[in-house]
Design goal:
Elements lengths: L1 E3 L4 E4 L4 E2 L20 E4 L1 E2 L2 E2 L11 E4 L8 E3 L11 H4 L4 E9 L2 E3 L2 E4 L1 H7 L1 H6 L4 E6 L18 E2 L4 H6 L4 E4 L14 H7 L10 E4 L10 E9 L6 E10 L1 E2 L1
Parallel strand pairs: 9-12, 11-13, 12-14, 14-15
Antiparallel strand pairs: 1-2, 2-18, 3-17, 4-7, 5-6, 8-15, 8-17, 9-16, 10-11, 16-17
């Protein structure tokens, strides 16, 4: 289906580019934060068999997972607040002007870090015009192993807190990244970038989200897209999500 953005621009809704990672029932599932792999198991109670393959009438499975630790997920400021806030209530619109950028984190001591200077150089046009609401990070190396990585105890790359100045300058509301966190794995619970992005506690930003553990294929070029960001309707600070990009065509 063709959807017109203007008299000259349109998207094809049948040509979505899915940048989420699926939840699987094996060790291939991407994970972080020292959690075990997710479990998807048939219910077996009181003679009931929740598996057709095992003699049951229907497939009826329990799923045990952690939204922060297992695959693509979207979170709201409730991730770092004492009061419980739900991403299901925070995300109230689902289509956004978006930009994909590819970035190679820089070496700083023992860490690999996405820096303010890098974003300033990559986002010069947005700094002048503030044209996008969502920013999507593809980090190098962009290898297939990201789809199955166990990030626990690996000190993955992260974003330095000073970079928030650039994101605030271009008014980014939705940040998506192919890493397990925007903050350092072991930062003694400071979560500096999370706090700066959501301005907690001084000025809480309820309409901003962070999406982690995405995967952006190399075939998806850097540039501008329309993002459809959908989450499962869980009343929780984070939920499994499926971000889908749509290329913008011009007549």
């Amino acid at each position: 289906m063709i959807f017109h953005l203007s008299n000259t621009q349109f998207i094809d809704t049948e040509k979505g580019l899915d940048i989420s990672l699926p939840l699987t029932n094996d060790l291939n599932n991407p994970r972080a934060w020292y959690v075990n792999p997710p479990m998807i198991e048939p219910v077996m109670e009181n003679g009931f068999v929740g598996s057709v393959a095992q003699g049951g009438n229907v497939n009826f499975r329990n799923i045990f997972f952690n939204p922060h630790g297992h695959g693509t997920h979207t979170e709201c400021l409730g991730h770092i607040t004492e009061e419980v806030f739900s991403v299901n209530k925070s995300l109230k619109s689902y289509f956004f002007q978006a930009k994909v950028i590819t970035i190679s984190p820089e070496k700083k001591g023992e860490d690999l870090v996405i820096t303010k200077n890098q974003l300033e150089n990559l986002l010069k046009e947005e700094i002048q015009n503030a044209t996008c609401e969502a920013l999507i990070f593809r980090t190098n190396p962009n290898i297939e192993a990201k789809k199955h990585q166990n990030y626990s105890a690996t000190n993955p790359p992260y974003i330095e807190v000073e970079a928030i100045e650039i994101l605030n300058q271009i008014k980014i509301k939705h940040l998506l990244i192919d890493l397990p966190s925007v903050d350092r794995e072991n930062d003694e619970g400071v979560l500096a970038f999370h706090h700066a992005f959501w301005q907690v506690p001084e000025n809480p930003q309820f309409d901003k989200t962070i999406t982690e553990l995405i995967f952006v294929k190399d075939e998806i070029l850097d540039g501008n897209y329309i993002l459809n960001l959908q989450t499962a309707p869980f009343e929780n600070d984070a939920s499994p999500s499926r971000p889908v990009l749509f290329e913008i065509f011009t007549k």
